[in-house]
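Private note to self, pasted from the team thread so I don't lose it. Backbone tokens:
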């Protein structure tokens, strides 16, 4: 004879977050009998009747653990062969993978108390964690998420940790990375000869001594290594820059604690910024520099922002508490090398850069760089999505049916890839440039790991349409159906997907402001106005195409773009006094090459226009040392004159080929206006925003569209972003927020476009604006 019961299936982020002990405690408080278990699909609860299911589910949803997220709850009946006498937590079961892998989470307040409380057995222990914090994604080898499937498998629990692990009332119940000084990973300090100098607390003392002496320490973290030095010592920071061959690119800074924020940032509101820095994701946050900052000038030269972060592991907390000063925490890799992930790689690759290595013996299973965000009046803007946010899944918008397994490979710069399984898209962490073979190898290993982790074997591959991209060539090696996607269509589609624009929604006007991407008929786009939905992409106009003198070299040498702009739009440029900025450069042979069409492809690049204006104002170096350097300097200069009145415009020029912004009039007005460099920098930003807004409004009226979606790396310029929002009124504006506007979001856009084409291979889908209702 069987007894009636209920089976509750919960999907979402419900493994590795203390969900089963939470259910045990909830069932105990309601005096229910049954069991709870993990499997590859999520969490399954079996309850013996009688059960007030509404009360149970209500409390479950209201009070779930802080790192958990419930995506769905389903209930059906269940017959017990033998009635349970109490409520228990049972072993995990294997089934189809349908749960979320949880991102790594910064050290929680309770664990932080443990490591600083002298009476606690984890006092000073660098790997303290619980179900509310600690590593997840970076140490998972397979699902379900149990200790034998993680990098902690080799660390056998001591009796005390075992007792915590098995006690449902303990916050370390089934915390898979749980450990203590007796049974867990250990920290060691290693010198340049590769020998171990000290372990545990003594190893930290070595690191602190080295940093105080102005030396550079390589630190093994969760998803990679940092190179650290004292951020208040100009000589130490310059030594790091020299050794890493990183002359001006800004460096991230870790603060000892939140009390340092007021000294290092002028950002408002401070409260919201504090919450963001202290969140479980613990990202690097770009924030306005303080005019009286203790950070040395070499941290972010010529820029108005600095990237700040707080300690996110016990190891970082212990180091920062001992150093008592802000530290540079930049990526642990040599120039043109992928970030080191193993102790051996770090010792080899960082020789000649680091003076000391602070290592540990827990493997990094999956790379995860520090995430980079910015706090804006309209919310948080994601610039690099990685540690703390990956691999949170993105639910596909309404109208997308369950999809065949699909892999989107992204672009070649700021690469991420995307897996689609069912109704969800899983975006990978940031990898960087696939032109570097070791990064491409890391990406390929990560793709294999994701496919194994999510039990997802792709049947279709989406890729950038550019035939020379590494990712484009990669896709052709898999022997699967391939979907080619224009670069800027993917940018706008990613924005639409983030904002849950339905598959049958109307077309939008898309503004794609970027460096370079492959467009129609092999054109190189970068400043486009498009009419877009997930299936279609029609070109309406934008910036006119201009030569890229020297091809790829134009992206690294801003003066080349200035020459190209002036040769195309300023016939008398050589007679103007401003022409002196090109003196000293070999402009004449380059001018002749452009005239002859030699190695000077045409491109409508917004990024290269920024470079040209920066070169004209002499605020860009002759040779860029990092992507976006000229544009970031130009923005910082413009902010000094924010809001100034000016006579500069970028009017519309209607042609049979489309409607374009008139750069000839812009350059004439801009050059004729005698004003300070900061005022001219702001005038360029303002005129560009007004020009693109007028272009979008013109086509919105012509097509009956009320919504504009934006995308492309230029949208990471916060001044331009704000001005575009202002001038696009009263249209509805969709701006990238939680997904990077730049190439870090391309894979999501490729994925949804490919899914739409698979779902409607021949149909000209026509829908209505979902905001009409």
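Design output:
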């Amino acid at each position: 004879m069987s007894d009636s019961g209920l089976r509750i299936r919960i999907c979402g982020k419900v493994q590795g977050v203390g969900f089963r002990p939470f259910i045990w405690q909830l069932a105990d408080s309601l005096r229910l009998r049954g069991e709870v278990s993990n499997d590859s699909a999520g969490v399954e609860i079996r309850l013996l009747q009688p059960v007030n299911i509404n009360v149970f589910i209500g409390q479950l949803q209201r009070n779930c653990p802080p790192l958990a997220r419930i995506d769905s709850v389903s209930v059906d009946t269940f017959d017990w062969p033998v009635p349970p006498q109490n409520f228990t937590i049972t072993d995990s079961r294997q089934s189809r993978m349908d749960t979320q892998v949880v991102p790594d989470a910064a050290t929680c307040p309770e664990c932080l108390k443990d490591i600083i409380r002298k009476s606690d057995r984890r006092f000073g222990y660098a790997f303290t964690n619980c179900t509310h914090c600690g590593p997840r994604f970076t140490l998972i080898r397979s699902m379900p998420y149990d200790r034998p499937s993680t990098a902690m498998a080799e660390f056998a629990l001591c009796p005390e940790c075992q007792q915590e692990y098995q006690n449902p009332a303990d916050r370390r119940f089934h915390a898979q990375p749980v450990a203590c000084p007796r049974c867990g990973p250990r920290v060691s300090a290693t010198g340049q000869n590769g020998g171990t100098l000290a372990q545990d607390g003594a190893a930290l003392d070595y690191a602190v001594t080295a940093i105080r002496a102005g030396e550079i320490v390589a630190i093994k973290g969760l998803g990679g290594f940092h190179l650290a030095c004292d951020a208040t010592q100009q000589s130490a920071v310059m030594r790091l820059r020299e050794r890493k061959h990183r002359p001006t690119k800004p460096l991230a800074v870790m603060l000892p604690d939140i009390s340092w924020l007021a000294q290092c940032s002028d950002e408002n509101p401070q409260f919201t910024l504090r919450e963001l820095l202290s969140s479980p994701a613990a990202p690097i946050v770009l924030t306005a520099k303080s005019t009286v900052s203790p950070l040395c000038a070499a941290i972010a030269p010529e820029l108005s922002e600095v990237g700040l972060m707080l300690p996110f592991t016990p190891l970082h907390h212990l180091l920062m508490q001992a150093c008592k000063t802000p530290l540079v925490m930049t990526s642990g890799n040599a120039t043109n090398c992928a970030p080191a992930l193993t102790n051996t790689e770090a010792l080899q690759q960082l020789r000649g850069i680091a003076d000391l290595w602070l290592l540990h013996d827990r493997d990094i299973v999956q790379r995860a760089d520090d995430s980079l965000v910015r706090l804006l009046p309209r919310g948080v803007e994601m610039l690099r999505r990685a540690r703390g946010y990956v691999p949170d899944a993105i639910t596909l918008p309404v109208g997308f049916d369950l999809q065949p397994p699909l892999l989107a490979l992204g672009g070649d710069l700021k690469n991420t890839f995307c897996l689609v399984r069912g109704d969800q898209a899983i975006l990978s962490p940031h990898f960087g440039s696939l032109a570097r073979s070791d990064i491409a190898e890391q990406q390929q290993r990560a793709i294999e790991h994701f496919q194994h982790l999510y039990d997802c074997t792709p049947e279709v591959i989406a890729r950038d349409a550019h035939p020379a991209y590494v990712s484009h060539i990669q896709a052709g090696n898999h022997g699967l159906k391939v979907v080619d996607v224009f670069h800027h269509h993917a940018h706008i589609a990613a924005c639409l997907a983030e904002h849950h624009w339905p598959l049958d929604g109307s077309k939008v006007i898309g503004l794609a402001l970027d460096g370079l991407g492959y467009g129609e008929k092999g054109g190189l786009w970068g400043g486009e106005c498009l009419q877009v939905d997930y299936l279609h992409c029609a070109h309406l106009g934008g910036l006119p195409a201009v030569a890229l003198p020297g091809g790829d070299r134009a992206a690294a040498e801003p003066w080349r773009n200035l020459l190209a702009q002036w040769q195309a739009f300023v016939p008398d440029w050589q007679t103007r006094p401003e022409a002196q900025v090109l003196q000293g450069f070999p402009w004449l042979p380059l001018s002749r090459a452009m005239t002859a069409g030699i190695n000077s492809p045409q491109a409508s690049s917004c990024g290269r226009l920024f470079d040209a204006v920066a070169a004209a104002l002499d605020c860009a170096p002759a040779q860029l040392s990092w992507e976006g350097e000229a544009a970031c300097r130009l923005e910082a200069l413009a902010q000094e004159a924010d809001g100034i009145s000016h006579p500069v415009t970028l009017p519309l020029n209607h042609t049979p080929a489309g409607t374009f912004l008139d750069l000839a009039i812009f350059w004439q007005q801009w050059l004729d206006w005698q004003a300070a460099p900061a005022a001219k920098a702001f005038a360029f930003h303002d005129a560009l925003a007004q020009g693109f807004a007028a272009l979008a409004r013109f086509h919105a009226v012509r097509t009956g569209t009320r919504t504009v979606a934006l995308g492309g790396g230029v949208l990471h310029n916060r001044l331009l972003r704000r001005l575009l929002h202002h001038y696009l009124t009263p249209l509805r504006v969709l701006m990238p927020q939680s997904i990077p506007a730049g190439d870090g979001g391309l894979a999501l856009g490729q994925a949804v476009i490919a899914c739409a084409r698979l779902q409607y291979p021949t149909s000209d889908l026509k829908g209505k604006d979902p905001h009409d209702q």
